[in-house]
Amino acid sequence: MKILAIESSCDETAAAVVEDGRKVISSVIASQVEEHKLYGGVVPEIASRRHAEAIVPVVSQAVEDAGLTLDDIDAIAVTYAPGLIGALLVGVNFAKGLSLSTKIPLVPVHHLRSHIASNYISNKDLKPPFMCLVVSGGHSHIVMVNDYTDMKIIGKTRDDAAGEAFDKAARTMGMSYPGGIELDKVAENGNPLAFKLPRPVVHDAPYDFSFSGLKTAVINLIHNAAQKGQELNKADVCASFRYAVVDCLVTNFLKAAEDFEVKTLVIAGGVSANSLLRSTLEKRCAELGYKFYMPDKSLCGDNAAMVGSQGYYEYQKGNIANSGLNAYATKNIEEG
């Protein structure tokens, strides 16, 4: 089964053709990162306009690269939630129009479910049930994946997402957007124990995260040093902050796995490309005898291949949309 997938939830216009949920035939991504760097983050209005400009050529290129025509496509999958509402509407409305004109079934796909599905492409043997840590610029969740379309949230952030904390800390240190990637690289040459940073705990919810206080702590550290005319070792600050964030993520994730007696663990989302998070979980899971899976780094960021993968399983479950499909800025992953 060949699915044409469309992704436009933030600042990447993407399209892909995926076969049977696991094989990527083509994948095209038009990124807006360089333009948004000028503003230190994504500007929603600009993102929406660029999606409108890029979506036709991107989708056309994905079909052409696959060596197919629309007659060969069995379903159209599109990200409909969550994300920037204006950006989502571009992809959703384009997919609806294409579905109506071609009579190809339309499959709505949840963005976070797609990130989890990126692992099905990278790891052909991975099947539910498993527990997944989904970490990105806007989300930090621990999700129990009972089946391909049956998911339950075990824990989530109470304030900032891990990726947001990385980006804001990086911006305070003068790094350009998206700063989390540069922070990760700089941290490789620093001492993770150079600065003592807090590990926020949500006492009434042991699997939930809170990164706001940790983000504030590192920003205050930088600002206080600047006010005193002191120069901090940037690599040490990056390494200490990265170590603190990863420590929070890994501690709660492994506690949830132990308490729920799950021995197959998965990571997904943009922050799953973080080198310390990947290496730490790989090591800890090996020590505990857990199976551990992670997506290829090329699939950690937003892309349409992961939408096509999840779209296949949504289609198999009978999750087909009509012309009334709408986009939603927020949507619980459990609702699909």
What overall form do the CA principal axes indicate? globular
Q: What average pLDDT do the residues reach?
A: 96
Give the % helix: 40-55%
Order of helices and strands: EEEHHEHEHEEEHHHHEHEH
Q: Give me the secondary-structure category.
A: alpha/beta
Strand order of the largest sheet: 3-2-1-4-5
Uncertain spans: none
Instruction: State the fourth-level CATH superfamily of the largest domain.
Output: ATPase, nucleotide binding domain
Distance between the termini: 21 Å
Total number of helices: 10
Number of separate strands? 10
Q: Kindly provide the name of the CATH class of the largest domain.
A: Alpha Beta
Oligomer category = single chain
Largest sheet: 5 strands, mixed
Q: How much of the residues is beta strand, in percent?
A: 15-25%
Q: How many whole angstroms does the radius of gyration measure?
A: 20 Å
**CATH architectural designation of the largest domain:** 2-Layer Sandwich
What fold name goes in the CATH topology slot of the largest domain? Answer: Nucleotidyltransferase, domain 5
- List the domain count as a whole number: 2
Core attributes:
single chain, 336 residues, alpha/beta, Nucleotidyltransferase, domain 5, 2 domains, five-stranded mixed sheet, 10 helices, 10 strands, 43% helix, 19% strand
